[in-house]
Specification:
Elements (H helix, E strand, L loop, with lengths): L5 E6 L11 E6 L3 H4 L5 E8 L8 E4 L11 E4 L4 E4 L3 E7 L2 H14 L5
Antiparallel strand pairs: 1-2, 1-7, 2-3, 3-5, 3-6, 4-5
C-alpha cells in the first residue's frame, strides 16, 4: 500500500512542452486517508536532479530512507493527478517534514490560505 510521502517511479508517458515525462520519480502527496481507500488516481509532484532554484522547488537530499541516488528537487509547479496504474516501483519515503514543506509550497503556488 502507498503512503503519503512515498517516492515512486512512474511512467508519465510522452511529455508535452516542459512537462515531466517518461519514467520519472515522483512524490505521492495524496492524503493518507484517501490512500488507505486505494484510489484509482493519485496526486504527485515529479522530482528532478536538475535544480533550477525556482521558488516552487523543494530540495530533497538523497538518503537511505527515500531511495534517491542523488539530491533532487520536488517540482511543485508540475503537480498532477495520475492513475495509480502508472506506479512502477516504490523507492522509499521523504518523511513528514518534507511532505509538509511541499504542501506549504503548493498552498503558496495555488493561493490557498494556510
Amino acid at each position: 500500500m502507498l503512503t503519503s510521502g512515498d517516492i515512486v517511479d512512474l511512467d508519465l508517458g510522452t511529455p508535452e512542452g516542459r512537462e515531466a515525462g517518461f519514467r520519472h520519480p515522483a512524490v505521492i502527496l495524496t492524503a493518507q486517508r484517501i490512500l488507505d481507500a486505494e484510489p484509482a488516481v493519485l496526486q504527485i509532484v515529479p522530482l528532478t536532479s536538475t535544480k533550477r532554484g525556482f521558488a516552487t522547488e523543494v530540495e530533497i537530499p538523497a538518503d537511505g530512507t527515500n531511495g534517491l541516488d542523488q539530491d533532487s528537487a520536488a517540482q511543485c509547479q508540475h503537480i498532477r493527478a495520475v492513475s495509480s496504474a502508472r506506479v512502477l516501483t516504490t523507492r522509499g519515503n521523504i518523511g513528514p517534514t518534507l511532505v509538509t514543506q511541499i504542501r506549504e509550497t503548493l498552498a503558496v503556488l495555488l493561493d490557498i490560505p494556510t
